[in-house]
Amino acid sequence: MFSSLGHFVSSLPAWVVLAAGVITGSIKSMWTQVYDHSIGWLGKKISLSVIIEDTQHKEAYQWVSFWVESRLRERKINSVVIRRNGSTKRHYRNTSARVITIHFEEPEDYSLMPGYGTYYIRHPTGLPMVVTHTCEKIQGDGGPTTRGPKVHNIEIKIWFSRDRNLLISLIEDARREYLNSLTPTVTYYRYRSYNGWDEGEALSKRPFESIYLREGLLDDVVSDMQTFLTSKHRYNFLNIPYRRGYLLEGPPGTGKSSLILALASHFNLPTYALSVAKMDGENLESAMTDCTTPCIMVFEDVDTLKVAVSREQSSGIERLTMSDFLNCIDGIGASEGRIVFMTSNHPEVLDDAVVRAGRIDRSYHIGHATDRELKMFYDRLSSQYPVCGWPEFRRSLPDIATIADAQAVAFRGLDEVRDEQGCCQYRP
User: Fold this and answer.
1) What local confidence, expressed as pLDDT, does residue 361 receive?
2) Which of these three, 182, 206, 221, is where a domain ends?
């Protein structure tokens, strides 16, 4: 039948085929115009809609996807998209996703999203709602034949209402449900040169009970950060840029990075780590402005950076100048809503311009652990695991020790022997 039809079409004159194509196209165009100015116009008058793109609205896309999938779950719809759990940042990495049938529970590092298509559900108010999940391929810069990134869209249309607050409340509900479903973690990002921020790594939250510092230091840092995070209106009123800087200095292994992770855990702030050695001013500015705020931004071991200790023009591999570095931290166009932490083993070599007030607002010395701090670590360790007595534990440490030394001995203690009196001794 189809072969006969094909033969019939091929036997027609070319002008007949061309005319048929023109007529068909005209009818389609006319119907589109009629629909848009009749049924389509009426539909827009009795509905409201919003389109959420994962490239532009990464956070909202994750929230709404979770919200929709959870309401489709009871219908036993098994066509879903599995995605790696990224972060709440604005970036999008081109990752392949395929529609599959899932028969297992959702993995911790992945999330399930509704498969591509149209779904009919109800808004919490009872109004009918249409959700359309699509995937579009963006044309590359080199023309239609080049491969571009994929854009995933979710369009929500609520019928018989013009109240935009319905959309706002839905997105807020989706955000709340999504965040409540997550395992408590800190999202940690690293900047990958010209590839931008990575997808983000979910780190387990670090409790303050696992931080061992001199008495009063932790409370001081927490109080200062709390004041900053709740004083945005004061900064705006005084026309002061809304940002804060801290320097944590001291010997290696004293817990500077652990303190930053614990603070990020306590305040639920995403953490961005920057290695500026191979960056230029433009890259650094882009990295620092393209972050979710509020956030923590970390420059580790700044005393090893030439731009932080010398005003001489960088050359060779180092393309960043001190002027670039300082302007990105607190220049006229520097981003706001962020907390900068710098760590250093040798703060005395840092240029005064780097650590002046306004760039570094508070400086804390994280020194070697005292016996009080080592005993706090020991008490926490011995509350869960069989270990020898505190005097033996302390003798196994150097006279001038760090918490890192104590941690090493704790794990070495798993391979233990006993002396003639039966006391536990750590094997060197």
Assistant:
1) 94
2) 182
- Residue 411 resides in a domain: yes
Strands (E) across 62-176 are located at 79-84, 99-101, 110-114, 117-122, 128-137, 150-159
d(CA 395, CA 32): 85
Query: Rounded to an integer, what distance in angstroms lies between the CA atom of residue 268 and that of residue 58?
Result: 18
CATH code: domain of residue 242? 3.40.50.300
Please indicate, yes or no, whether the overall pTM of this predicted structure exceeds 0.90. no
Q: How far apart are CA 48 and CA 156, in angstroms?
A: 8
Contacts of 151 (CB under 8 A, 6+ apart): 53, 54, 55, 135, 136, 137, 138
Task: Kindly state the helix (H) or strand (E) to which residue 271 belongs, with its residue range.
Answer: strand 271-273
Low-confidence ranges of the chain (pLDDT < 50): 86-108, 314-317, 414-428
In a domain, 383, yes or no: yes
The DSSP H or E segment spanning 338 is strand 338-344
Separation of alpha carbons 281 and 342, rounded Å = 18
- Total domains in the chain come to 3
Range of the domain at 315: 188-365
